[in-house]
Amino acid sequence: MKHFWKILSVISQSTLSVILIMELVIGMIGNGFMALVHCMDWVKKKKMSLVNQILTALSISRIFQLCLLFITLVIDFSYPDLTTSSSMIHFMYNAWILANHFSIWIATCLSVLYFLKIANFSNSFFLYLKWRVEKVVSVTLLVSLLLLILNILLSNLATDVWTSEYQGNISCNFSSHYYPKCHRQVLSLQMVFLSVPFVLSLSTFLLLIFSLWTHHQKMQQHVQGGKDARTTAHFKALQTVIAFLLLYSTFILSILVQVGNYEFMKKNVFIVFCQVVYIAFPSFHSYVLIWGDRKLRQACLSVLWRLKCNYAETLDL
What we know:
GO molecular function, one term: bitter taste receptor activity
Membrane topology: Multi-pass membrane protein
Helix content: over 70%
Strand content: under 5%
Transmembrane segments: 15-38, 50-75, 95-116, 136-154, 191-214, 235-257, 269-290
Number of helices: 9
Main location: membrane
């Protein structure tokens, strides 16, 4: 029976590893496509809108995030001893914090931008923000940088505490005893800082729903049936924000599971599973954005059509 569970564990780990690699490839293609289309458009028109700037920055940050995961996997499987050094632990944690921070906060700025552009309130404070949307996005990013600095400082402090304790008690193995505890504490700090953009995105989602409801009420009072342009814009923005929140929730769930299940951190299958759930966010969110953006969607359909034609010509030959 023990032999059976061992075989099952190996099969599960291999399957999850294949899924993880597929997610990495899919994510690199999607985010690379977004960055390429917007950069080509920027070169052609010599200018770039705020939305396209955010989408380009988001895709570049996601490419960095996916590359970092790939490098981490190579180091873990090829050079596992490197992960026990203090300098490497600090470097990897800081790199992960940077990658997660910019990927999530830039996506949050996109949600804020959609809300300010599409929502319709007569409140003076909202109108003040709506007229200064670029400044709102800039201030949001500035605040996020302050949170980033605080996150890195606290994470490095926690890492220093655990590495110092290990150096003072070398009788215990770092990988099996100290690393899971250090990793758990750093992830707990991550959860605290990740809750800020999540609450902000959730707030924009709820306010967009309220804006749609008030707009629908006004439309009924004026006896205008069907969907107008503003209602359609509300629905498109809501679809994008909903997809973002769902994928963001899976991302947070993967971190919560690692924090809550201390013993599972020692099992490779569990670690790979968490990585599969984690990487779904930066990989698949790009396709949601591509489908929700008319220019990106048309470019994607054009590329797929050309690939289909080339494939058909190859078969004819």
